[in-house]
Amino acid sequence: MTVTAPVLFLLLLGALGLALAAGAAPGHLWLPVLQAVYARYRRRLSGNNRLSVLLRGRRVILLFSPGCPPGRCLELARAMGARDSRFLPLVHGVACRLPSRALRRVPGGLAISEARARADTRAMLVHVEDDVPIFASDLPFLDWLCRRRTLSGQQVPWGVERIEAPAAWPQSRGEGVRVAVMDTGIDLRHPDLQDRLRPGYNALRPGSRPQDDNGHGTHVAGTVAATDNGIGVVGVAPRALLHPVKVLDRWGSGLLSDLVEGMRWCAENGMQVVNMSFGTTQDSRTLREAVRRLRDAGAVIVAAAGNEGPPGEGQRSSVTYPARYPEVIAVSAVDVEDHTARFSSRGPEVDVAAPGVGIPSTWPGGRYRSLSGTSMAAPHVSGVAALVLAAGGDLSPDEVRARITGTAEDLGLPPAEQGAGLVNARRAVAG
């Protein structure tokens, strides 16, 4: 089905009308409804859609030779007609908008047109690719059906119980381990999170606070390290330190260049665990290089496998990127009965499974909410990585991965669905 801008406008307007007709207060029901409709079509609207390219140019990332100074990289980009340029130190590239006439299609991607490619540009420019959109790996169509709520007392979420995290707490609670939640930000005043929060970064608006304006990042953070304080919920590693790194906007989407900037901050600030509950179906040389450099900086990288379901006909894998890369621990989702979630991506890249259906966790405004998706599965594994690092001393990312996969519980599912099995905190900490 081809969706035009007028059709999308009518869909959004209709969703708003239905919500208001039901008596919803502005900002309560209607925003999640709009988010759900938008999420269905956001791939058509994000990144390099036709209208955006026509009016403003194509979003691209230019990778330059390491010998090209940053200022020179920006100068060469401007000579090609670049606008909105930003240097990306982690990959030695420039994110910018280029006019269509400056680009040409080549097998496997993009290249600078001959008319725009000066001799010095050809010597220094290594690669050109789209600045692809990245999306949160939850199920926004169902989010609005899950009511926000308050909790009396404290509960241990079923996923935290299922992976035996409470049994690991006498040995480790993740004390002092720095966990970056690369997401939509975190509610900086949530009573279950504020004591665990440490400085973060807003890649969308550098200098601004990484405040969550969506909810996804707050939910993910609660599963990693909600405080054991007698209220709300408790996370897998309740003594870990949470660093919010905002790379996704209020709709749960962002650009590859924003992600790379967030990864740079993580690498430069010594993040020990980095949770990535998002993905894209498009491979990227830029993303692959950024992941490699972040891992080389010592970070354990955990990513949602994706919500693409089983692979299509003739395909081996439906796992999204960055979870597909070998440097990343790819996490699929199972339900309360240890069955693979229908939505969960499958493929040989899956390393472990974790609970990802009906997961209760923190939500902005001091509230709580249950969500589903591999987005919810990944932070269980990030929490376990924090437990292992706090208990095991100076372990490398490879050693942490080996500990997590080597102690996983075999659920009897195909390896493409569970990897090594269900992550188990007690066994991982014990070694």
UniProtKB/TrEMBL annotation:
Where along the chain is the active site annotated?
D183, H216, S375
Pfam families in UniProt: Peptidase_S8
**Start and end residues of each Peptidase S8/S53 domain:** 174-421
User: InterPro entries, per this entry?
Assistant: Peptidase_S8/S53_dom, Peptidase_S8/S53_dom_sf, Peptidase_S8_Asp-AS, Peptidase_S8_His-AS, Peptidase_S8_Ser-AS, Peptidase_S8_subtilisin-like, Peptidase_S8_subtilisin-rel, Subtilisin_Carlsberg-like
Q: Which PROSITE patterns match?
A: SUBTILASE, SUBTILASE_ASP, SUBTILASE_HIS, SUBTILASE_SER
The highest taxon in the source lineage is: Bacteria
The family classification in the record reads: Belongs to the peptidase S8 family.
Q: What is this protein called?
A: Aerolysin
Query: What is the scientific name of the source organism?
Result: Caldinitratiruptor microaerophilus
